[in-house]
Amino acid sequence: MIFDKFKVFIPIxxxxxxxxxxxxxxxxxxxxxxxxxxxxxxxxxIKKSEKSSIKKQTDKKENKDLxxxxxxxxxxxxxxxxxxxxxxxxxxxxxLKSQEIxxxxxxxxxxxxxxxxxxxxxxxxxxxxxxxxxxxxxKNLPDRKIFNTEILNFSEFLIIIITDITNQKxxxxxxxxxxxxxxxxxxxxxxxxxxxxETIDFNNYTIEENKNFLKIINSKTFEIKNLIDQILxxxxxxxxxxxxxxxxxxEILKSxxxxxxxxxxxxxxxxxxxxxxxxxxxxSFTSMELEVVINNLLSNALKYTPKGKTVSLKTKITSExxxxxxxxxxxxxxxxxxxxxxxxxxxxxxxxxxxxxxxHGLGLTIANHxxxxxxxxxxxxxxxxxxxIFKFNLKLS
Length: 397
Fold this sequence. Notes:
Number of helices: 13
Structural class: alpha+beta
Helix content: 40-55%
Strand content: 15-25%
Largest sheet: 5 strands, antiparallel
Distance between the termini: 84 Å
Radius of gyration: 41 Å
Strand order of the largest sheet: 2-1-5-4-3
Number of strands: 12
Shape: elongated
């Protein structure tokens, strides 16, 4: 290294030796003295330049370390997993959330830590085009998860921010499915209405025939209204911040049952009630929604129970902190193969049977959704030709 810096003087030294041949001793000494001064000055400036260069590098490293330290203290406060990586894509630092999920992976390449094919493909795309710094990727094992990733490019390093958007995407997918299902369900009554509107003809049909057409149109119009009301009710149950209240179970049951007494009598169905065990019992539940659950279960029992049969509603203390609500009917029953699908939106066991009873398969979906939101499980058992039992437990306050 030292030889490299001073090899520039070799030709000068050779030239001096040649000059010394023509100069006397005094001139040689004087000339040699000035050359030594020149060399010493040159050495001084070289060393000063080296010190300045080292200081700049040190300052640059200190500034980089300071910047990194500031970012590290900031990202530790965030809930998303965040990586700080070098331009070689090796991990320099991670925030606490990232270490919690992926453990401490310093010095490892980011693609060896997040090894999902979808992520690596998008990261390779970013390497080709730095403007491709936002992308969504998913992993399917052990559970399906969807993530949004943003890459921030700084002069010395990159910051990778990973956001779990699974719930948001699932809600969007459900909304799309609901819209598709609603469109499908509306087609049948709308087609009927349009068909009969085109059929009405006061010149070629009697007044009675046209009145009958209008009755069918009116019936299908109310069917559409009922479907939309149920869809709106299902949407309401998705409101996460709905107020939780302490409610008297027996009072809720009494007020709900009151509106069904006459309906069961008109249908020729015996309605048996035993709710004494719910007396003065209190539970925490989302506002007004326990009534919706009971309404939907009683409406379902009324719809599928023939005249002369019985529907019962009873409560039972099953433990110190639990009270069961049981609705049992002597209806037509449900095939075992369909029990697990009863709470799916728009699912109906038998289309011909539903054409007679009406409904769109949303009542049990709504009831199940409300119960799930309140930490309850809807249990269903049934036997064809003998009836069905719907049961759920409430935690007592």
